[in-house]
Amino acid sequence: MSDDDVRILLVDDQPLLRAGIGTILGAVPGFAVVGGAGTGTEAVARARELDPDVICMDVQMPDMDGLEATRRIVGDPAVHARVLMLTTFNREDYLLQALQAGASGFLLKNSRPEHLVDAIRAVAAGDALLAPEVTRAVIARAVGAPTPPPADGGLPPAAAHLTDREVEVLRLVARGLTNDEIAAELVLGRATVKTHVSNVLMKLGLRDRVQAVVFAYTHGLTP
Predict the structure, then answer these.
(1) What region, left, alpha or beta, does residue 63 occupy, with left being phi > 0 and alpha being psi -120 to 50 degrees?
(2) pLDDT, tens digit, 9 for 90 and up, residues 98-112
(3) For residue 62, what pLDDT is reported?
């Protein structure tokens, strides 16, 4: 394991599933599975102990579920991990609660292995993974009706200190685009887009792209 590897903690109450995912991820260059946990309580403790970059978190577990574990992990200043929640389509309420708990991504349990690999890379890089087919429904239920844009076509006061380019980038983040897709849309370099995204998060006091999507939705900045 090198210092540049993405450190991954696997949390699921099924040992066989943890072992299977661990085998898949352990074979990916640049990934290091640093441990596992079978309950939410254990996940909270191991997150502090192992200092992972990404936690793959199951929802339904004994003792403490993944939603409460995510809430505690995200709220712990000693932990810097991002949480990728593993869930299913038929429980949109889990997606809503995971968003509110601070998860940085959602992935379906029936996803292909390569999608899991891509999701972990995206979350580790700060490109929070939001499945386009569920993002709008989840955000809508999380925040209620969006605030309409200002009648004069200007920016809402909360975003008035963003540059025009930063507003463009925020709108595209709200559409679920990755940095690469935003770069292609605006004909910019990926590094430039990453800087713009970082500036938006810093200026608005947001933790990650999930919060940026919620901000855009609630302030009338979505398409």
Answers:
(1) left
(2) 777 888 887 877 788
(3) 83
- pLDDT greater than 90 at residue 210: no
Q: How far apart are CA 180 and CA 174, in angstroms?
A: 14
> Distance between CA atoms of 137 and 84, rounded to whole angstroms?
19
84 and 120 Cβ atoms separated by less than 8 Å: yes
Q: In the beta sheet, which residues pair with residue 57? A: 11, 85
Which domains occur in the chain, in start order? 6-140 (3.40.50.2300), 145-218 (1.10.10.10)
What is the three-state SS of the chain? CCCCCEEEEEECCCHHHHHHHHHHHHCCCCEEEEEEECCHHHHHHHHHHHCCCEEEEECCCCCCCHHHHHHHHHCCCCCCCEEEEEECCCCHHHHHHHHHHCCCEEEECCCCHHHHHHHHHHHHCCCCECCHHHHHHHHHHHHCCCCCCCCCCCCCHHHCCCCHHHHHHHHHHHCCCCHHHHHHHHCCCHHHHHHHHHHHHHHHCCCCHHHHHHHHHHCCCCC
Angle at 178 between CA 123 and CA 5, to 5 degrees: 35
Find how far residue 38's CA is from the centre of its chain.
22
Structural tokens at position 92: 């949109």
Beta bridge partners of 13: none
Instruction: Say how far apart CA 106 and CA 56 lie, in whole Å.
Output: 10
- pTM for this prediction: 0.70
